């Protein structure tokens, strides 16, 4: 190597390498201190955008999961009311079947009719009182949309079709809430005829209600499947973000050790390189 006084090229080269090593070492230390691999040089563009997108999808999936569980809770609330109305219809059918028997006295028929009318009023009351978050579940005809996806398309929504269980919707009453059937009459024969008509209407009402409950059960099963899928999807999004964003601590520690050794050796070389011009003075002396 030529000895020159004007330029110490060897020292300049070693100093440049030392600066690059220091920059890389600072990045590794930052990665170790933050736990994020995106602190490394050149990773603040595409990889950061991908990591942020995956984080957003994780959070949206969490909301969608909550939405699906809300839908299941709504159906469970509606089903509780429908189950009790089913029980009431069964009891009303029993009373109508009793009323079709001519062995009862007028006083006994009056008692049967009183219970029959009271149960009809209870059907109307339960349908009006059954609500979820102030939303009527079985007394209005409005469908519900449950957002269970991470896009704005129709494939991300599950529709809960309205199930109405008022006496009018079940075909045994009017829109004002009064029963259209009775199990009494001015004569025994008239009471039997009324009871038979009421019984037939109640059997049809029970079948109607069972069909509507079946539709709710189908949607509940679908929402349960959506919950299972969203749980896995959220976990996968979170894992994917971790793969992009999180640093490999073992790798960074190994790199830190390598760079420290390299930095120490380069510092020693720089010290020696800065002494080379002094050799010329010794030669002149």
The rounded Rg comes to 40 Å
Protein structure class: mainly alpha
Spatial order of strands in the largest sheet: 1-2
CATH class of the largest domain: Mainly Alpha
Order of SSEs: HHHEEEEHH
**Strand fraction:** under 5%
Q: How many independent structural domains?
A: 2
Separate helix tally: 5
Helix content: 55-70%
Summarize the structure.
This protein has 5 helices and 4 strands. With 285 residues, the chain is mainly alpha-helical. The strands form 2 sheets. Strands 1-2 form a two-stranded antiparallel sheet.
Written account of the structure:
This protein has 285 residues and is mainly α. The protein folds into 2 domains: 9-35 and 247-284; 49-245, f41 fragment of flagellin, N-terminal domain, CATH 1.20.1330.10. It contains 5 helices and 4 strands, in the order H-H-H-E-E-E-E-H-H. The protein has a two-stranded antiparallel ribbon with strand order 1-2. Strands 3-4 form a two-stranded antiparallel sheet. A hairpin with a 2-residue loop joins strand 1 (131-132) and strand 2.
